[in-house]
Specification:
The chain is an alpha/beta fold. The chain folds into three domains: 7-91, Orthogonal Bundle (Arc Repressor Mutant, subunit A); 96-169 and 271-302, Periplasmic binding protein-like II (D-Maltodextrin-Binding Protein, domain 2, 3-Layer(aba) Sandwich), CATH 3.40.190.10; 172-268, D-Maltodextrin-Binding Protein, domain 2 (3-Layer(aba) Sandwich), CATH 3.40.190.10. Helices cover 41% and strands 21% of the residues. It is built from eleven helices and twelve strands. The protein has helices at 7-19, 22-29, 33-47, 63-90, 110-120, 134-141, 191-194, 228-236, 246-255, 283-292, 295-302; strands spanning 52-55, 58-61, 96-102, 125-131, 147-152, 162-170, 172-176, 199-202, 222-225, 242-245, 259-260, 270-277. It has a five-stranded mixed beta sheet with strand order 4-3-5-12-6. It has a three-stranded antiparallel beta sheet with strand order 10-7-11, covered by helices on one side. It has a two-stranded antiparallel sheet with strand order 1-2. Helix 1 crosses helix 2, helix 1 (7-19) packs across helix 4 and helix 2 crosses helix 3. Pfam families: HTH_1, LysR_substrate. Belongs to the LysR transcriptional regulatory family. Residues 5-62 form the HTH lysR-type domain. This is DNA-binding transcriptional LysR family regulator.
Length: 303
């Protein structure tokens, strides 16, 4: 029967390297010396590699054996992780878990959250996807996400299978470039004045559900861009006008990159939620929800 490399033979190599003797290795491993000698010889035969050399009665590892030993620690660690991960999967923990993040919430808490989840559930592959407006709900409906952080307003439809937890309100600030023609206006800006300039918005990522815009007036030209950072850049360059969440707008206002103006019909705050399908039996979700509902995480998503 071939012995080759296994967690047991790598362990034997480690002990022989440390003790320099088959008999001493046998004591450490609680085996008879002949069993250690047999295993060592069988390893060499099966691998076709000389693993041991004798010098003055002291057994030393050959360069090939030292190489195996060097990589062996990694192999043993991998085998142990594999056993633990397989046990988690066997206990019903998901192999994959996806979090959908609404583009208007602050993504800064994600690294800390993923680190905590990965440590608790090492067998699971975690994914983060960014969605825009109804795209967040669509990801949940179509099982492309296990949970949504920052799902906007109320679900487009709910047949009792969606649970939500109020997260907070996202405040918006209207912005223009300091060099934009509207920057010189001191009165409250009316829709008739704003309509002459393009609205800069991020495109709703939904396909099947009705798409929504951050803000655009009827008859107004719209430029769709990839993300909020590009919205800010386009507004700052005077390409168009629009709204940004306060967490992004306030630093830009402080730096002088953009200015704000008072308009007659201001965009209302967007109420956002945690949302998930309540029919899924998920140990990860049961672990995650209490964490997300702490004041620490609630405030970080919004600020």
């Amino acid at each position: 029967m071939a012995i080759g490399l296994s967690s047991d033979t790598i362990r034997i190599l480690q002990v022989i390297a440390k003790t320099g003797s088959f008999s001493e290795a046998a004591k450490v491993l609680h085996r008879v010396p002949s069993a250690i000698g047999y295993t060592a010889k069988k390893m060499e035969d099966d691998l076709g590699i000389k693993l041991f050399s004798r010098t003055n009665g002291h057994i030393q590892l050959t360069p090939a054996a030292r190489y195996i030993l060097e990589k062996g620690d990694w192999i043993l660690q991998g085998l142990n992780e594999l056993k633990c991960n397989a046990a988690q999967i066997d206990n019903g923990i998901e192999k994959q878990f996806t979090i959908a993040l609404n583009y208007i919430v602050n993504p800064d808490p994600i690294p800390k959250l993923l680190s905590s989840l990965s440590e608790k559930f090492p067998a699971t592959e975690f994914s983060i996807r960014t969605e825009v407006y109804n795209g967040a709900w669509e990801a949940l409906y179509e099982n492309r996400a296990n949970i949504v952080i920052g799902a906007p307003q109320n679900p487009p439809f709910n047949q009792g299978n969606i649970s939500t937890e109020y997260l907070g309100d996202i405040e918006w600030i209207f912005l223009v470039s300091p060099c934009h023609p509207l920057a010189k206006e001191n009165s409250i800006l009316q829709a008739s004045q704003l309509r002459h300039y393009p609205a800069i918005v991020v495109h709703d990522s939904s396909i099947a559900l009705q798409q929504k815009k951050t803000w655009a007036l009827k008859g107004q030209k719209v430029f769709y861009v990839a993300d909020l950072e590009m919205v800010l850049s386009m507004i700052a360059e005077g390409v168009g006008i629009g709204f940004l969440p306060a967490r992004i707008a306030i630093p830009a206002l402080t730096s002088g990159k953009v200015i704000t103006k008072v308009i007659a019909e201001h965009k209302q705050p967007v109420r956002v939620y945690y949302a998930w399908q309540n029919q899924q039996q998920s140990q990860i979700l049961n672990y995650l929800l209490p964490i997300l509902c702490t004041d620490e995480y609630r405030s970080q998503w919004l600020n």
